[in-house]
Design goal:
There is one protein chain. It contains nine helices and 15 strands. By secondary structure, the protein is α+β, with helices and mostly antiparallel strands. Strands 7, 8, 9, 10, 11, 12, 13 and 14 form an eight-stranded antiparallel sheet that branches. Helix 4 runs parallel beside helix 6 and helix 6 packs across helix 9. The longest helix has 33 residues.
Length: 355
Protein backbone atom coordinates (compact mmCIF):
# COMPACT_ATOMS: atom_id res chain seq x y z
CA UNK A 1 0.00 0.00 0.00
CA UNK A 2 1.47 3.32 -1.03
CA UNK A 3 2.22 5.80 1.68
CA UNK A 4 0.72 9.26 1.26
CA UNK A 5 1.52 12.28 3.43
CA UNK A 6 -0.47 15.34 4.44
CA UNK A 7 0.66 18.71 3.12
CA UNK A 8 2.01 20.45 6.21
CA UNK A 9 3.73 23.85 6.10
CA UNK A 10 5.69 22.94 9.26
CA UNK A 11 7.02 19.70 7.80
CA UNK A 12 10.73 19.22 8.45
CA UNK A 13 11.32 18.61 4.76
CA UNK A 14 10.12 22.15 4.01
CA UNK A 15 12.30 23.53 6.78
CA UNK A 16 15.29 21.90 5.11
CA UNK A 17 14.32 23.47 1.80
CA UNK A 18 14.13 26.88 3.44
CA UNK A 19 17.84 26.70 4.14
CA UNK A 20 18.29 27.16 0.40
CA UNK A 21 18.06 30.94 -0.18
CA UNK A 22 16.77 30.48 -3.74
CA UNK A 23 13.83 28.49 -2.48
CA UNK A 24 13.18 30.65 0.58
CA UNK A 25 11.86 33.56 -1.52
CA UNK A 26 9.51 31.29 -3.49
CA UNK A 27 8.19 29.82 -0.27
CA UNK A 28 7.28 33.19 1.20
CA UNK A 29 5.61 34.16 -2.06
CA UNK A 30 3.53 30.98 -1.89
CA UNK A 31 2.83 31.19 1.85
CA UNK A 32 -0.15 33.59 1.57
CA UNK A 33 -1.74 31.28 -0.97
CA UNK A 34 -1.27 28.30 1.36
CA UNK A 35 -2.85 30.24 4.22
CA UNK A 36 -5.76 31.27 1.99
CA UNK A 37 -6.33 27.65 0.96
CA UNK A 38 -6.42 26.58 4.60
CA UNK A 39 -8.83 29.41 5.46
CA UNK A 40 -11.18 28.31 2.69
CA UNK A 41 -10.97 24.75 3.97
CA UNK A 42 -11.18 25.08 7.77
CA UNK A 43 -11.39 21.31 8.18
CA UNK A 44 -8.32 20.91 5.94
CA UNK A 45 -10.04 18.16 3.93
CA UNK A 46 -8.87 19.89 0.77
CA UNK A 47 -5.28 19.17 1.80
CA UNK A 48 -5.86 15.52 2.68
CA UNK A 49 -4.70 12.58 0.60
CA UNK A 50 -7.21 10.30 -1.03
CA UNK A 51 -8.13 7.12 0.80
CA UNK A 52 -6.21 3.92 0.16
CA UNK A 53 -7.25 0.30 0.30
CA UNK A 54 -9.57 -1.82 -1.80
CA UNK A 55 -13.33 -1.50 -1.96
CA UNK A 56 -14.90 -3.70 0.69
CA UNK A 57 -11.93 -3.66 3.09
CA UNK A 58 -12.05 -2.57 6.74
CA UNK A 59 -9.00 -2.02 8.94
CA UNK A 60 -9.69 -2.78 12.61
CA UNK A 61 -7.19 -1.43 15.13
CA UNK A 62 -7.32 -3.87 18.04
CA UNK A 63 -4.98 -5.77 20.37
CA UNK A 64 -4.03 -9.16 18.99
CA UNK A 65 -5.19 -11.04 22.08
CA UNK A 66 -8.64 -9.47 21.74
CA UNK A 67 -8.85 -10.25 18.03
CA UNK A 68 -8.02 -13.90 18.61
CA UNK A 69 -10.83 -14.33 21.15
CA UNK A 70 -14.59 -13.72 21.41
CA UNK A 71 -14.23 -10.04 20.46
CA UNK A 72 -12.65 -10.91 17.12
CA UNK A 73 -15.27 -13.59 16.54
CA UNK A 74 -17.99 -11.01 17.15
CA UNK A 75 -16.45 -8.58 14.63
CA UNK A 76 -16.28 -11.35 12.04
CA UNK A 77 -19.88 -12.38 12.69
CA UNK A 78 -21.22 -8.82 12.45
CA UNK A 79 -19.12 -7.43 9.58
CA UNK A 80 -17.93 -10.43 7.55
CA UNK A 81 -21.10 -12.45 7.23
CA UNK A 82 -22.07 -13.56 3.74
CA UNK A 83 -23.56 -11.02 1.34
CA UNK A 84 -27.20 -11.98 0.72
CA UNK A 85 -28.22 -13.11 -2.75
CA UNK A 86 -24.84 -14.10 -4.14
CA UNK A 87 -24.43 -17.49 -5.84
CA UNK A 88 -21.16 -18.12 -3.98
CA UNK A 89 -20.38 -17.01 -0.45
CA UNK A 90 -18.59 -13.65 -0.20
CA UNK A 91 -18.14 -11.61 3.00
CA UNK A 92 -19.83 -8.27 3.51
CA UNK A 93 -16.37 -6.85 4.24
CA UNK A 94 -12.80 -8.13 4.19
CA UNK A 95 -11.41 -7.46 7.66
CA UNK A 96 -7.77 -6.54 8.35
CA UNK A 97 -6.77 -6.51 12.02
CA UNK A 98 -3.71 -4.62 13.19
CA UNK A 99 -2.40 -3.72 16.70
CA UNK A 100 -2.30 -0.06 17.67
CA UNK A 101 1.52 -0.01 17.42
CA UNK A 102 1.22 -0.85 13.71
CA UNK A 103 -1.33 1.90 13.04
CA UNK A 104 1.04 4.16 11.12
CA UNK A 105 0.63 6.31 8.01
CA UNK A 106 0.27 3.35 5.71
CA UNK A 107 -2.94 2.28 7.47
CA UNK A 108 -4.23 5.67 8.62
CA UNK A 109 -5.31 6.62 5.11
CA UNK A 110 -7.39 3.48 4.66
CA UNK A 111 -10.95 4.02 3.42
CA UNK A 112 -12.70 2.24 6.34
CA UNK A 113 -11.32 2.30 9.90
CA UNK A 114 -12.55 0.90 13.19
CA UNK A 115 -10.47 2.10 16.14
CA UNK A 116 -10.91 0.32 19.47
CA UNK A 117 -9.57 1.44 22.83
CA UNK A 118 -10.01 0.23 26.40
CA UNK A 119 -9.58 2.62 29.33
CA UNK A 120 -10.74 2.47 32.93
CA UNK A 121 -11.59 6.18 32.65
CA UNK A 122 -14.46 5.38 30.29
CA UNK A 123 -17.71 4.94 32.22
CA UNK A 124 -20.20 4.33 29.43
CA UNK A 125 -19.22 2.91 26.02
CA UNK A 126 -18.66 5.50 23.31
CA UNK A 127 -19.15 4.86 19.60
CA UNK A 128 -18.24 7.79 17.35
CA UNK A 129 -18.61 7.89 13.58
CA UNK A 130 -16.12 10.34 12.10
CA UNK A 131 -15.42 11.34 8.52
CA UNK A 132 -12.18 12.28 6.79
CA UNK A 133 -9.94 12.00 9.84
CA UNK A 134 -6.72 11.06 8.01
CA UNK A 135 -7.83 11.00 4.37
CA UNK A 136 -10.90 11.57 2.21
CA UNK A 137 -13.50 10.22 1.67
CA UNK A 138 -12.92 8.18 4.82
CA UNK A 139 -15.06 6.77 7.62
CA UNK A 140 -13.48 6.13 11.02
CA UNK A 141 -15.58 4.46 13.70
CA UNK A 142 -14.10 4.95 17.16
CA UNK A 143 -15.15 2.55 19.94
CA UNK A 144 -14.10 3.46 23.50
CA UNK A 145 -14.92 1.10 26.40
CA UNK A 146 -13.65 0.24 29.88
CA UNK A 147 -13.22 -3.53 29.46
CA UNK A 148 -13.07 -6.32 26.91
CA UNK A 149 -16.47 -7.48 28.14
CA UNK A 150 -17.93 -4.08 27.38
CA UNK A 151 -16.26 -4.10 23.97
CA UNK A 152 -17.83 -7.46 23.18
CA UNK A 153 -21.25 -6.18 24.23
CA UNK A 154 -20.92 -3.08 22.04
CA UNK A 155 -20.05 -5.15 18.96
CA UNK A 156 -22.91 -7.56 19.55
CA UNK A 157 -25.46 -4.81 20.22
CA UNK A 158 -24.37 -2.16 17.72
CA UNK A 159 -22.67 -4.27 15.07
CA UNK A 160 -25.61 -4.05 12.67
CA UNK A 161 -25.56 -0.26 12.86
CA UNK A 162 -21.80 -0.18 12.28
CA UNK A 163 -22.25 -2.44 9.27
CA UNK A 164 -24.91 -0.11 7.87
CA UNK A 165 -22.57 2.89 8.20
CA UNK A 166 -19.79 1.09 6.35
CA UNK A 167 -22.12 0.00 3.54
CA UNK A 168 -23.54 3.52 3.22
CA UNK A 169 -20.06 5.02 2.96
CA UNK A 170 -19.01 2.53 0.28
CA UNK A 171 -22.13 3.41 -1.69
CA UNK A 172 -21.52 7.13 -1.20
CA UNK A 173 -17.99 6.80 -2.60
CA UNK A 174 -19.23 4.94 -5.66
CA UNK A 175 -21.95 7.42 -6.52
CA UNK A 176 -19.60 10.39 -5.97
CA UNK A 177 -17.13 8.82 -8.37
CA UNK A 178 -19.89 8.13 -10.88
CA UNK A 179 -21.10 11.71 -10.61
CA UNK A 180 -17.59 12.95 -11.39
CA UNK A 181 -17.42 10.73 -14.49
CA UNK A 182 -21.06 10.77 -15.47
CA UNK A 183 -22.53 9.85 -18.84
CA UNK A 184 -25.08 12.69 -18.86
CA UNK A 185 -26.86 11.59 -22.04
CA UNK A 186 -28.40 8.57 -20.33
CA UNK A 187 -29.90 10.53 -17.46
CA UNK A 188 -31.15 13.17 -19.90
CA UNK A 189 -32.94 10.49 -21.93
CA UNK A 190 -34.49 8.93 -18.83
CA UNK A 191 -35.61 12.35 -17.72
CA UNK A 192 -37.20 13.21 -21.05
CA UNK A 193 -38.87 9.87 -21.81
CA UNK A 194 -39.68 8.49 -18.36
CA UNK A 195 -39.59 11.41 -15.89
CA UNK A 196 -36.83 9.73 -13.92
CA UNK A 197 -33.25 10.67 -13.09
CA UNK A 198 -30.31 8.41 -12.23
CA UNK A 199 -26.53 8.79 -12.32
CA UNK A 200 -24.66 6.55 -14.77
CA UNK A 201 -20.87 6.56 -15.23
CA UNK A 202 -19.11 6.41 -18.57
CA UNK A 203 -19.16 2.95 -20.07
CA UNK A 204 -22.91 2.46 -19.74
CA UNK A 205 -25.11 2.58 -22.83
CA UNK A 206 -28.81 2.55 -23.64
CA UNK A 207 -29.66 -0.92 -24.96
CA UNK A 208 -33.46 -0.88 -25.09
CA UNK A 209 -36.27 1.60 -24.54
CA UNK A 210 -40.03 1.16 -24.81
CA UNK A 211 -43.08 2.94 -23.42
CA UNK A 212 -42.60 1.76 -19.85
CA UNK A 213 -39.27 -0.08 -19.90
CA UNK A 214 -35.60 0.83 -20.32
CA UNK A 215 -32.44 -1.30 -20.22
CA UNK A 216 -29.08 0.40 -19.65
CA UNK A 217 -25.99 -1.81 -19.56
CA UNK A 218 -22.24 -1.93 -19.04
CA UNK A 219 -20.64 -4.80 -20.95
CA UNK A 220 -17.10 -6.12 -20.95
CA UNK A 221 -15.72 -9.49 -22.10
CA UNK A 222 -15.73 -10.67 -18.46
CA UNK A 223 -18.82 -9.13 -16.88
CA UNK A 224 -22.23 -7.67 -17.58
CA UNK A 225 -23.90 -5.11 -15.34
CA UNK A 226 -27.45 -4.14 -16.22
CA UNK A 227 -29.92 -1.56 -14.96
CA UNK A 228 -33.58 -2.18 -15.70
CA UNK A 229 -36.20 0.56 -15.31
CA UNK A 230 -39.92 -0.17 -15.54
CA UNK A 231 -43.20 1.11 -14.19
CA UNK A 232 -46.89 0.31 -14.10
CA UNK A 233 -50.14 1.64 -12.60
CA UNK A 234 -50.35 1.88 -8.83
CA UNK A 235 -53.50 0.24 -7.43
CA UNK A 236 -53.11 0.07 -3.67
CA UNK A 237 -50.56 -0.81 -1.00
CA UNK A 238 -50.66 -4.46 -2.07
CA UNK A 239 -48.56 -3.40 -5.07
CA UNK A 240 -45.60 -3.45 -2.68
CA UNK A 241 -46.16 -6.92 -1.27
CA UNK A 242 -43.16 -9.18 -1.81
CA UNK A 243 -45.16 -11.70 -3.84
CA UNK A 244 -46.69 -9.02 -6.09
CA UNK A 245 -43.31 -7.39 -6.74
CA UNK A 246 -41.80 -10.72 -7.76
CA UNK A 247 -44.80 -11.59 -9.94
CA UNK A 248 -44.66 -8.24 -11.75
CA UNK A 249 -40.89 -8.58 -12.15
CA UNK A 250 -41.22 -11.98 -13.82
CA UNK A 251 -44.01 -10.72 -16.06
CA UNK A 252 -42.05 -7.74 -17.39
CA UNK A 253 -38.69 -9.50 -17.69
CA UNK A 254 -40.21 -12.36 -19.65
CA UNK A 255 -41.36 -9.79 -22.18
CA UNK A 256 -38.24 -7.65 -22.48
CA UNK A 257 -35.12 -9.41 -21.12
CA UNK A 258 -34.55 -12.29 -23.51
CA UNK A 259 -31.65 -14.76 -23.41
CA UNK A 260 -29.12 -15.61 -26.14
CA UNK A 261 -31.08 -18.73 -27.09
CA UNK A 262 -34.63 -18.76 -28.47
CA UNK A 263 -37.37 -19.17 -25.88
CA UNK A 264 -35.17 -18.09 -22.98
CA UNK A 265 -35.75 -15.10 -20.72
CA UNK A 266 -34.74 -13.73 -17.34
CA UNK A 267 -36.77 -14.76 -14.32
CA UNK A 268 -36.45 -14.93 -10.54
CA UNK A 269 -34.83 -17.94 -8.88
CA UNK A 270 -37.46 -19.00 -6.36
CA UNK A 271 -35.78 -22.11 -4.95
CA UNK A 272 -33.40 -19.90 -2.95
CA UNK A 273 -34.21 -17.13 -0.44
CA UNK A 274 -35.39 -13.75 -1.74
CA UNK A 275 -34.78 -10.88 0.67
CA UNK A 276 -37.38 -8.16 1.22
CA UNK A 277 -37.25 -4.94 3.20
CA UNK A 278 -39.04 -1.58 3.48
CA UNK A 279 -37.29 1.74 4.12
CA UNK A 280 -37.25 5.44 3.23
CA UNK A 281 -35.02 6.51 0.35
CA UNK A 282 -34.77 10.17 -0.64
CA UNK A 283 -37.91 10.86 1.44
CA UNK A 284 -39.91 8.19 -0.41
CA UNK A 285 -41.30 4.90 0.80
CA UNK A 286 -39.23 2.20 -0.91
CA UNK A 287 -39.14 -1.57 -0.97
CA UNK A 288 -36.19 -3.72 -1.87
CA UNK A 289 -36.09 -7.31 -3.03
CA UNK A 290 -32.82 -9.08 -3.74
CA UNK A 291 -31.93 -12.57 -4.77
CA UNK A 292 -30.75 -14.54 -7.79
CA UNK A 293 -31.91 -14.35 -11.37
CA UNK A 294 -31.71 -17.12 -13.92
CA UNK A 295 -32.67 -17.82 -17.51
CA UNK A 296 -35.83 -19.80 -17.93
CA UNK A 297 -35.43 -22.26 -20.80
CA UNK A 298 -32.62 -24.24 -22.47
CA UNK A 299 -29.75 -21.99 -21.38
CA UNK A 300 -27.73 -21.69 -18.18
CA UNK A 301 -27.05 -18.16 -17.00
CA UNK A 302 -27.63 -16.47 -13.69
CA UNK A 303 -26.38 -14.11 -11.02
CA UNK A 304 -27.44 -11.67 -8.29
CA UNK A 305 -29.94 -8.84 -8.58
CA UNK A 306 -31.30 -6.09 -6.35
CA UNK A 307 -34.57 -4.29 -7.08
CA UNK A 308 -35.98 -1.06 -5.62
CA UNK A 309 -39.62 -0.01 -6.01
CA UNK A 310 -41.33 3.24 -5.02
CA UNK A 311 -44.51 5.10 -5.88
CA UNK A 312 -44.62 8.13 -8.16
CA UNK A 313 -47.59 10.00 -6.72
CA UNK A 314 -47.48 12.60 -9.50
CA UNK A 315 -48.29 9.97 -12.11
CA UNK A 316 -49.91 7.28 -9.95
CA UNK A 317 -47.40 4.61 -10.92
CA UNK A 318 -45.09 2.12 -9.27
CA UNK A 319 -41.51 2.75 -10.41
CA UNK A 320 -39.02 -0.12 -10.20
CA UNK A 321 -35.30 0.14 -10.84
CA UNK A 322 -33.12 -2.91 -10.53
CA UNK A 323 -29.55 -3.92 -11.14
CA UNK A 324 -28.19 -7.32 -12.04
CA UNK A 325 -24.74 -8.81 -12.53
CA UNK A 326 -23.48 -11.61 -14.74
CA UNK A 327 -19.86 -12.43 -13.94
CA UNK A 328 -19.42 -16.21 -14.02
CA UNK A 329 -15.68 -16.23 -13.28
CA UNK A 330 -15.51 -13.28 -10.89
CA UNK A 331 -16.38 -12.35 -7.33
CA UNK A 332 -19.59 -10.38 -7.52
CA UNK A 333 -19.91 -8.40 -4.30
CA UNK A 334 -18.34 -5.18 -5.53
CA UNK A 335 -20.02 -5.37 -8.95
CA UNK A 336 -23.38 -5.69 -7.23
CA UNK A 337 -22.62 -2.72 -4.96
CA UNK A 338 -21.79 -0.66 -8.04
CA UNK A 339 -25.17 -1.22 -9.68
CA UNK A 340 -26.88 -0.78 -6.32
CA UNK A 341 -25.30 2.67 -5.98
CA UNK A 342 -26.85 3.67 -9.31
CA UNK A 343 -30.26 2.52 -8.09
CA UNK A 344 -29.93 4.62 -4.94
CA UNK A 345 -29.41 7.74 -7.08
CA UNK A 346 -33.00 7.46 -8.38
CA UNK A 347 -35.10 10.62 -8.36
CA UNK A 348 -38.65 11.16 -9.59
CA UNK A 349 -38.63 14.20 -11.90
CA UNK A 350 -41.33 16.80 -11.35
CA UNK A 351 -43.05 18.64 -14.23
CA UNK A 352 -40.95 21.76 -13.67
CA UNK A 353 -37.70 19.73 -13.90
CA UNK A 354 -38.36 17.76 -17.05
CA UNK A 355 -36.43 19.98 -19.42
Amino acid sequence: MRKQNHLNITDTSILKLLRNSDIRLSYFILLPFLILMMACNPDNTGLMPNVTGKAGEVVIVIDKQLWEGPVGDAFIKQLAGEVPALPQGEPMFDLIDIPRAAFTDIFQTHRNLILTSISKNVKEPIVKVRKDVYAKPQIAIQIEVNSKEQLLAVIEERGAGILDKLVEKERERIITNYRNFEEPGISAKLRKLHNLSMIFPRGYSYDLDTTNFAWIAHETPEISQGILVYYYDYKDTSSFNKENLISKRDEILQKYVLGPVDNTYMTTEKDLPISYREFILNERYTTEISGLWKLDGPAFMGGPFVSLSTVDTLRNRVVTVEGFVFAPKQDKRNYLRQVEAILYSLRIVGPEEKE
